[in-house]
Amino acid sequence: MIIVLRPATSDAEIAKIVDHLGALRLQAHVSKGAERTIVGVVGITDDKETLIAQFSQFDGVETIMPISKSFKLVSREARPDRTIVRLPNGATFGGNELAICAGPCSVESREQLQATAEAARRYGANVLRGGAFKPRTSPYAFQGLGEEGLRYLRDAADRHGLAVVTEVLDVRDVELVARYADMLQIGARNMQNFGLLRAVGELHQPVLLKRGISATIEEWLMAAEYIFVAGNHDIVLCERGIRSFDPQTRNLLDLAAVPLTAAQTHLPIVVDPSHGTGVRQLVTPLSRAAVAVGADGLIIEVHPNPAAAFSDGPQSLTLELFADLMRAIAPIAEAVGRTLPKNVIAV
Ligand code: PEP
Ligand code: MN
Question: Ligand 1 — pocket residues by CB below 6 A?
C-alpha cells in the first residue's frame, strides 16, 4: 500500500509512521517529492483493512491507497515525481535532457576505446558503453577482456568527460565492475537472475536494466522491483527488442513498450535500437522513432571499424554514422521538447 502524506508533514511524524511499520515487520520506502511525501509499504499482511484504518489515524496522513499490482514501489502511484537518474559526469536519465550512451559491443583494445570515446563525446554522447564481460550464446565466442577492459573503459571515459555503463554478468563480479563503472548494466539474458538483481540492489550506483528477450512488461517491472526493494532506487529500464518470428531483424524493437511502460512506472526508459534490430541501417530511423515516442535516452553500438568488431559488427555504427544519427535525432528531440546532452562540441 501507499501512504500519501499531507504537504509539510514533519520528519518526526514520518519517523513515527516508519517506526510503527517496522514494529509490524513491514518495510517502509519513503519518497520525498517536490510537493508531498509518499511512504511505500511492502511486506506480508493478511488484514489490509485494519492496517489502513490504523495508519489513517497518524498525523500527516492524507490518504492510503492499496496497490493491487504485482509491482509496487516502481509503480507510477508509488512516487509523486518521475525518477531522474544522474551519473557523476552530469548525464541524466528521465529529465528534459536525453542520455546518449555510445560505444562498442565489446571492449577490444585501448586504442579502440580511445577512438570511440573521442568521437562519442565530439558528436554529443555523454555515456560510454562497452562490454568487458560478454554474455555470448556460444561458450567459444569472445567472452570479453574482464578487468583489463574495465580499465580501458574508465580511462577513455575519464579522458573525454563521459560516464561508463557496462554489463555485469555474475554476482561474483559485482564489486569489481562497480569499482570501474558509473552504471551497471543487467543484460537481457539476466533480467530474471534474481541473485544478481539483489546484488546490484545493494549498491549505491545506478543500474541499467534491459528487458528480457521474451519478458512481458510486467515481468520487466517486477525485475526492477527486486532492485528497488533491495535499496537501490536509481534504475533505468532499457527496451532492447523482443524475440519474434521474422529473421530479417535480430529482435523486434517494441516501441509501444516505451509509452506503455512509462504510464506504469516512475522509472526512466531508454531504447537500444542496435540490439533491437541487429541491422546497422535501421539504427538511426529507430532512434528517431524512439525519441519521438518519449524515450529518455538511447544506447547505441559504435565501432571505429565494424567489419573487424569482435561482436555485433553488423549492427554497429561507424563513428561517422554515429555523427549522422546525432544530427538526425536533433529535430525530433526538439519537436518533443527534449534536449540533447549539453556537451555537444561539433555535430
Ligand atoms: C549489450 O548491450 O552489450 C548486450 C549484450 O545487450 P542485451 O543484453 O540487450 O543483449
Ligand atoms: Mn552487442
Answer: 105, 131, 135, 167, 187-189, 210, 240, 272, 275
The set of cell numbers assigned to 344 is: 555537444
Radius of gyration over alpha carbons of the chain, in Å? Answer: 21
User: 337 C-alpha vs ligand 1 centroid, how far in Å?
Assistant: 29
Q: Is the pLDDT of residue 345 over 60?
A: no
* Cell 528480457 sits on residue: 212
Amino acid at 242: I
Q: Which ligand is nearest to the CA of 137?
A: 1
Q: Which residues contact 92 (CB under 8 A, 6 or more apart)?
A: 84, 85, 86, 99
> pLDDT-based confidence at 23, cuts 50/70/90?
very high
Give residue-wise pLDDT tens across range 66-98. Answer: 887 889 899 998 887 999 999 999 999 999 999
pTM for the structure as a whole: 0.91
Q: Whole-angstrom Cα distance, residue 305 to residue 243? A: 28
Name the pairing type of β-strands 85-86 and 235-239.
unpaired
Query: Does residue 346 carry a pLDDT above 90?
Result: no
Question: What is the β-pairing status of strands 37-42 and 297-301?
Answer: unpaired
**Cα 126 from Cα 68, distance rounded (Å):** 38
Task: Give the integer Cα–Cα distance in Å for 85 and 218.
Answer: 21
C-alpha cell at 108: 577490444
C-alpha 72 – ligand 1 centre gap (Å): 27
- Amino acid (one-letter) located at 162: L
